[in-house]
Amino acid sequence: MFPTDFSRRFSTGVTLFLSLWIGSASGLFAQVNEATAEDNEPLFHDSHFHLSNYVHEGISTRRMLEVMGDKVGRVALFGIPLTQKWDYFLNGKRRPGYYLESTSEMYYYSFIDAIIANQYLRLNEADRERFDPFIVGFNPTDMNGKDHVRQVLLTFPGVFVGIGEFSIHKELVTSKIAGHAASVRNPAVNELLSFAGEVGLLVILHCDINEMRGVGDHPAHIDDLRDLFSRHPDVNIIYAHTGLGRFVGPTRTHVELLDDICSDHSLDHVYFDISWDEVAKWIVKDEETVKAWSRLINRYPTRFLFGTDSVAPKSQEAYLKTFEDYQPLWKQLTPSASRAVRLANYERLVNAARKRVRAWEARNLEEEEVDGPIVIPFPEKVPARQAAQLEAR
Ligand SMILES: [Zn+2]
Question: Which residue in 40, 217, 243, 340 could disulfide with 7, CB within 3.0 to 4.6 Å?
Fold first, then answer.
């Protein structure tokens, strides 16, 4: 998938420089490095990355290429669906840039998808191969949410491969969002996933598995999530962070619950990312947790993906932090399981989505007999085909 000059582009001098300043991080880093150096493979593909923050400031894709260097191969590229409002009456002259910096509300910011598409399209073809953009700017409580996704696909054909990371339950965030709170039970989420299935979009879904203070050992949202997942067997869903968060920790049976999903063949389309340093802190908490998680991942290596969940990183060192945090885990995985989590699963899932989404775009642009952005016609002009589809649901 790499441009042929990928390894050549990084001279020995650059590599030496990088290894000198990263060198102190750990010997294990070097171990993974050596294991993959033969094939000129990067350390990982990043299945979970935000180019911009909660007020849509960040770095360009060109700058991101420098941050990735030869350490990271491909990146699942998205912004953040929500914007943190600067409410003068609450914040005065202090502009909040993160959701924890203010009690003022958040709202869905659809323009982020155009920003991401623009950042992708500014790159030359070889560099585009290293990014896989996702659509995030829809409201998952709105039955029209899927229509936003359709609009984005047809306005920027050849760009997007999936939807997400979008959030349903998210600690400290859900309650700040203007309007109706998102829920796994909301039929609007069902509609989104049905549409993802129709198009072949890969889905990255964030939904805390539990409330910040759960009751008992059975996480609050797991049953609803399993119901949702089983209703969409034709959609590849990456369940972000395996449902964990900064405050939503694993219950005693968390690893068993994941094992149960992995062994249930009706849920073969459900995958997990272990992105976010806040999630790493649970997984590599101590020897026992590392043992339990490595046993799980070694048993189901095709079901887990590594991602950074980094937001507009300022340096390569900052960008690689989550990868470094996971060194105790990498050490316990078999070489093939490690490679699957770091590289192979990303390639398999994203490449399949790329192919299907491009085919859907080609079919739909052809049907609409346009070669540019689509303006949805007024209801009286909606083709009978579309009206019939709506009625059939
Ligand atoms: Zn994220």
Answer: 40
Cis peptide before 278 (omega within 30 of 0): no
Distance 390 CA to ligand 1 centre (A): 33
Q: How far is the CA of 218 from the centre of ligand 1 (A)?
A: 24
Token pair belonging to 201:
């979009």
Sheet strands (E) in 140-219: 162-167, 202-206
Expressed in angstroms and rounded, the spacing between residue 176 Cα and the centre of ligand 1 is 17
Distance from the CA of 48 to the center of ligand 1, in angstroms? Answer: 6
- What's the CA-to-centroid distance between 301 and ligand 1, angstroms? 22
CATH assignment of the domain containing 51 = 3.20.20.140
For 111-153, how does the pLDDT look when each residue is reduced to its tens digit (9 = 90+)? 999 999 999 999 999 999 999 999 999 999 999 999 999 999 9
20 in a structural domain: no
Count of H-run helices and E-run strands, the chain: 18, 11
Q: What is the CA(78)–ligand 1 centre distance, in A?
A: 9
For residues 154 and 361, the answer to whether their CB atoms sit within 8 Å is yes
Report the pLDDT value the prediction gives residue 366, as an integer from 0 to 100.
Answer: 73
